[in-house]
Amino acid sequence: MGSPPADGQITFVVAGRLYAVSSDGAVQCLADLGGRSPTWLSWSPDGDEVLIGPDALLRADGTISATGYFADNTNVRWSAPTGKALLAPKATTGQLIWRNAHDSNDRIDVSFADGITSAAYHPAGKHIVAAGIGRDGLGPGVFVASNRGANAQRIGALEPGTTATEVAFDMSGDSMVFVHRHADGGSHLHRFHFASPTQGTLGYLETLADLPDVTPTHLVVSSVDEGDVAWTQAYSPANASTIVMLGGSTTTVSADSPEPDHIAESLGWLPGHRLLISSRSADPSAGAAFNLWEWSPTGMRSVLDGVSAAATRTMHGQYHEMTTVLGSGFG
């Protein structure tokens, strides 16, 4: 499939084939998926391989292999920086399972908390952040550990009965974003800034958004433009909005679907502060296919109608090594 262009590509599935469209409008068929019609895509950090559903991997040579994860486990994430492995919590137990991307039988339990709901690799690949129940007796929280689950440290404590979900690192790896879901139905969107060892602290927490009535979903943090964050706010199954925050600003902008009676969901970022969103009919009888739009600070443009899955394909931008020094912890 080759490498993605410098300005990225929008990829999508139609009728069992994987396509890519570049910023100049050129469309190419990347692969025939052999009868598969996935509803979820996720590209590796260097853009040469793609998950066509959580349970199947389309390799660079065009072959398809099983990942070992269940087809409904959309918490599967690529390892960093090259995507040699996959990572996901088990829905039944919350164990964090690492698997070799090309050999699903090569697997390790790298749990460093219990009941893990979401996890992500730092861009440099030497650390993992996960949300779950701490083994230090202090309840739920967000934790950082080595890429094998050792020397875990708590980023922050969460009140009992709450959970943290959808953790994601920014491009540089200097901070990470996560959703804090409260027992009363509201949420906060937080950014944790990692400090250098000379500062004598692990880091500090910033609140990006206070959302008393909704829980954000589809959290996407840009890996090509520092500080860009987007999420979807669903007030009901038929009423969802995509919210954009650019360059570390706490000012939000709406990126709603311009189509009447459609709901917008954030899918991924492209270079130049461009956001891919899905526009799906709010009418359940309309079927599972959706339309694609690209949002940018200058406006919204239609990309394509009637796709079953879509994702952005980019090369990861410049990142830093994590300078946090992990202690003995409790992992």
Automatic annotation (TrEMBL):
<protein>
    <submittedName>
        <fullName>Unannotated protein</fullName>
    </submittedName>
</protein>
<dbReference type="InterPro" id="IPR011042">
    <property type="entry name" value="6-blade_b-propeller_TolB-like"/>
</dbReference>
